[in-house]
Backbone:
């Protein structure tokens, strides 16, 4: 008898420890992100000491002086955008992987990014876009509308009775090929100047970050996150399979619809503003899963933090890699992310 | 516990245009009894169970728990009354056993677990009842097939339903666990006055632990009654196409001995 009570006590204690350990990991990730963010602000053509950066940040915007201008108007928009885009894309990827029950799902692999590229291509090369949108906003607005349309198309397929999750993923992959072909066609027809602009756009760059765009992306995150948090338990249940989750009382169709809607918003806005940054949406969630498991109360914030951390670090590397040149973040993310990811996976393999 | 019977009338379950079960009536399943659903492969046992559990979109007919229509309920409402355990628990999931149980309790708020602490405490009680509290902190991908089945059972039991539906709860278990799990399911059903329905392949196990046996083939009920009434050589010939004997062992349990397949005229 005493043996069983002891085991139960162990289980209760162990579970409490597990939760604490996961919360501690979230805290560690947040601290890591803070450091990466400050490094990102400090790095650039003129290397600023961290102390100076902190002073300028704490003094507030418009405090005067060259330092304040560099930090607040040049460095900070990049750094904040890197963080927000990383968080938004990784959170999107995490929710997609869960609701589509597929470890390869991400906004990039299922057509959102290619749709955005098509939208951008139409705006850049043909100058066509949504009416009444100011010229400056034509490219992002077009990219967003196309990304949203791709996700809604995917949603629509999800609603169709009898379309299994596998079919849905295959449909997403088909979308990637279709959009890529259309983009290639436009590139083929484009003038040299438009082509150059388009290629640069699709490499993914934070150079287009402004406070206005940051505000919009932050707003999208603020709208989406409370719903993600509320869905966390239902998403955890969904990991145990469709039938089981429904038997727990989860309306799986509604959960899936909600998640894909959040993904549309977050991925659409991110891709519209910074172009194609694919890798983070796929890898952020995997890194988070290796660290905190799949209790979505921890998994979702950890994914967002991993994504933000990865993009912040990539941004730093992008500025340092080739002196005097800013390497587009889309390229760096994959180059930095792949080794980090492989190390995580291989490390995990050794432990098992 | 509401302790009212479950009745099924004129049930039709279809996957798209493929109709698996049509016009099926089931005499009321009484609370506190365990019913075994048996039949050959592809007889429609799992489909019938999923249909009753409201998991197949193309299901028509009535499934009543007392006066209330289960199929007309919302998903969370139905989950308060009915727990269903599918055959397999997915493998590559990075969740610990405790997390899956707490998740089962908190996916939709229940009176059982209004907060995290009570959910964890309740989860541990359920694990203890099944004797698997030592697995509490293991992740699902490190469990054997049999352990995973026990954890699945724990998830279904944790929500304390009125109706417990289990699809082959013993398929991956060794002899000892088969007997102990079935005894536990039976005890839970009887003590708590649940309506218990179990899909089983092992007729001996079904005969020993179930109060009632429903034999199904090609989506229709072929026999329904106590194991002693239903398990006859004639039924086994009809449903399973085998020549079989039914014997009583020294302890009085029924034994089914299949001797040879019956060759159909087509062969």
Residues:
């Amino acid at each position: 008898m005493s043996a069983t009570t002891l085991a139960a006590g162990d289980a209760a204690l162990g579970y409490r420890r597990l939760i604490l350990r996961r919360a501690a990991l979230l805290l560690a990730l947040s601290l890591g992100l803070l450091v990466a963010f400050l490094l990102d602000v400090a790095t650039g053509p003129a290397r600023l000491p961290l102390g100076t950066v902190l002073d300028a940040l704490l003094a507030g915007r418009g405090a005067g002086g060259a330092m304040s201008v560099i930090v607040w108007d040049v460095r900070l928009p990049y750094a904040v955008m890197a963080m927000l885009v990383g968080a938004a894309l990784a959170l999107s990827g995490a929710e997609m992987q869960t609701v589509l029950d597929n470890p390869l799902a991400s906004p990039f692999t299922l057509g959102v990014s290619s749709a955005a590229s098509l939208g951008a291509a139409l705006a850049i090369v043909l100058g066509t876009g949504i009416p009444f949108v100011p010229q400056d906003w034509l490219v992002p607005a077009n990219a967003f509308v196309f990304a949203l349309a791709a996700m809604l198309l995917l949603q629509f397929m999800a609603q169709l009775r009898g379309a299994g999750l596998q079919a849905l993923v295959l449909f997403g992959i088909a979308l990637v090929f279709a959009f890529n072909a259309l983009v290639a066609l436009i590139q083929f027809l484009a003038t040299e100047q438009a082509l150059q602009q388009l290629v640069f756009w699709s490499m993914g760059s934070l150079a287009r970050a402004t406070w206005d765009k940051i505000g919009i992306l932050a707003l999208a995150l603020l709208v989406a996150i409370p719903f993600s948090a509320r869905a966390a338990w239902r998403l955890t249940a969904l990991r145990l399979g469709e039938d089981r989750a429904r038997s727990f009382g989860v309306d799986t169709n509604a959960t899936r619809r909600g998640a894909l809607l959040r993904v549309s918003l977050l991925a659409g806005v991110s891709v519209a503003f910074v172009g194609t940054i694919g890798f983070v949406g796929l890898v952020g969630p995997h890194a988070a899963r290796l660290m905190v498991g799949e209790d979505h109360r921890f998994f979702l914030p950890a994914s967002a933090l991993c994504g933000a951390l990865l993009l912040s670090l990539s941004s730093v590397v992008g500025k340092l890699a080739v002196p005097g040149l800013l390497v587009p973040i889309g390229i760096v993310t994959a180059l930095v992310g792949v080794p980090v990811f492989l190390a995580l996976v291989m490390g995990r393999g050794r432990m098992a | 516990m509401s302790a009212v019977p479950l009745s099924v009338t004129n049930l039709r379950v279809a996957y798209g245009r493929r109709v698996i079960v049509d016009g099926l009536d089931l005499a009321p399943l009484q609370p506190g009894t365990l019913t075994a659903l048996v039949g050959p492969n592809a007889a429609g046992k799992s489909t019938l169970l999923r249909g009753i559990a409201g998991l197949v979109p193309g299901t028509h007919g009535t499934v009543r728990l007392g006066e209330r229509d289960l199929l007309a309920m919302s998903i969370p409402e139905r989950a308060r009354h009915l727990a269903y355990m599918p055959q397999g628990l997915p493998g590559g999931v990075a969740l610990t056993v405790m997390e899956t149980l707490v998740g089962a309790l908190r996916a939709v708020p229940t009176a059982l677990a209004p907060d995290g602490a009570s959910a964890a405490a309740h989860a541990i009680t359920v694990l203890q009842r099944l004797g698997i509290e030592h697995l509490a902190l293991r992740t699902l991908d490190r469990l054997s097939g049999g352990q995973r089945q026990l954890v699945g059972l724990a998830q279904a039991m944790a929500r304390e339903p009125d109706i417990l539906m289990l699809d082959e709860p013993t398929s991956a278990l060794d002899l000892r666990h088969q007997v102990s799990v079935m005894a536990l399911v039976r005890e839970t059903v009887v003590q708590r006055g649940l309506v218990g329905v179990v899909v089983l392949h092992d007729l001996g196990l079904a005969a020993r632990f179930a109060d009632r046996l429903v034999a199904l083939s090609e989506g229709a009920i072929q026999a329904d009654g106590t194991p002693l009434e239903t398990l006859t050589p004639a039924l086994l010939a009809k449903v399973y196409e085998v020549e079989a004997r039914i014997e009583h062992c020294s302890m009085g349990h029924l034994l089914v001995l299949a001797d040879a397949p019956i060759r159909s005229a087509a062969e």
Q: What stands out?
A: Residues 88 and 266 of chain A are 6 Å apart (CA to CA). Residues 77-351 of chain A form a domain with the ABC transporter involved in vitamin B12 uptake, BtuC fold (CATH 1.10.3470.10). The interface with chain B takes residues 4, 7-8, 10-12, 14-16, 18, 161-162, 233-234, 236-237, 239-241, 243-251, 289-290, 293-295 of chain A (CB under 8 Å). The radius of gyration of chain A is 21 Å.
